[in-house]
Amino acid sequence: MSFPKNFLWGGATAANQFEGGWLEDGKGDSVCDHITAGTVSTPRYFTNEIKSENNYPSHEAIDFYHRYKEDIALFAEMGFRVFRLSLNWTRIFPKGDEAEPNQKGLDFYRDVFKECKKYGIEPLVTISHYEIPYYLMDRYGGWLSRDCIDFYLNFCETVFKEYKDLVTYWLTFNEINCMMMGVGDILSGGIKSEDGPLQDFSAVPTREQKQKRFQATHHQFVASAKAVILGHEINPAFKIGCMVAGGAIYPYTCNPDDVVLAQKEMRMNYFCGDVQVRGEYPYYTNRIFEEMGISIEIKDNDLEVLKQGTVDFYSFSYYMSTCTTADEEAKKTSGNVIMGVKNPYLKASDWGWQIDPQGLRYLLNDLYGRYQIPMMVVENGLGAVDVLEEDNTIHDSYRIDYLREHIRQMEEAIRDGVDLIGFTPWGCIDLVSISTGEMKKRYGFIYVDKDNEGNGSLERLRKDSFYWYKKVIASNGEDLL
Question: What is the pLDDT of residues 255-277, one digit of tens each?
């Protein structure tokens, strides 16, 4: 048993990190357009006023807006069967609360989807990927307001109807569980904020912050469920999924305190999936909210909507695993968004993210056993510093090694019985890092000539991994050497 014949091989991107086209053709400004560049040691800053002296990397990104035909042709050359991208909400509804869409924005995505179809590439469209309009933050307070549910549904209805013959696969929200973690206040929730650095993932939230995050998440749950119901009414053939930031969490030791803590933290890993797949808040919700000292407002009919609007498939990102311990002295921050203790059996990337391919198999089995619906790994990859040689080649064997081992573990999960339907490694073309705002942290099979300060020709160059992944797809995962 290996990868099924119809397995969806491809790659993933997000509009705010690669599209560019800042304010072109009627586009409004999203929250991401107000976030500056940063580095590993210097945090990205959010500014309510866009200041000319600052570098806002989303404004140009890698200029997919003007180069989409070139980029999609490169994806087709690799043999992509699916291309994950997101819609820039403000390109279609510049402020977010308009009744009528911006036609030029609709036309742009129609052209992109038609270009994909020309090569037999299936679009996988994330409707909201850290793209809430800034106006909805400033005027309404973002997802803390139930008004955003209606604005989002108007957006969904517009794109569902506009692209019903071009798009089959949809994701309602990107990494919806990130709302509950630090930086999600601004990126995921659009919760009104003062100027300042994006909140550190390691910061301990106040009770008020927890209250806001879970209330905003509830509004997104309701919006997602209503979008699923609406999408199926518009086109019953639509496949609409959730998308969760995934991670395997291990107990650091066999001390029962560590084992119980790991189980508790994995529950928070399940929280969003339980609501979006099972259609109800999990049994442990009351105790979690009681211990946090919060109480969310649930309106009449909300729970019925959640039950009716369950997703068709479960998708998630996976970059690393973490360990957890009850020993306060041993704790330290590690990786992307999850607190943890470094696993002594694993190596780490240049950015400190621990590399654990077997953790992907573990997580796939864990999630599939829980939900029993098709799975898709829609983000996975290695952020690294790539060296452009004098002959314009890029030798990224470390990226090939990383992906090879993760693909092998996906195959093991399929042999275990997991219904895995697709794989879209993150940043199939170099793009702006969401966590640091850098270009230096590269993920792609395609090199983009641009540096952290925004300088460069934007020329596209094939890396060694480009040719390797082309071979992987052509052999349907059989040739990984």
Answer: 999 999 999 999 988 999 999 99
CA 250 and chain centroid, separation: 23
Task: Say which of 19, 379, 411, 438 is annotated catalytic.
Answer: 379
Contact criterion met (CB below 8 Å) for 358 and 390 = no
Architecture of domain 8-320+347-474: Alpha-Beta Barrel (3.20)
For helices 147-162 and 207-234, the axis angle rounded to 10 degrees is 30
Catalytic residue among 175, 265, 411, 438: 175
DSSP string of 415-436, one letter each residue: HHT--EEEE--B-SB----TTT
Per the annotation, the verdict on 98 as an active-site residue is no
Residue 148 has pLDDT above 60, yes or no: yes
User: Within 13 A of 408's CA, how many CA atoms are on the CB side?
Assistant: 12
Contacts for 405 with CB less than 8 Å, ≥ 6 apart: 357
C-alpha span between 75 and 81 (Å, rounded): 9
Region 335-341 average pLDDT: 56
Q: Where are the domains of the chain?
A: 8-320+347-474
175 carries an active-site annotation: yes
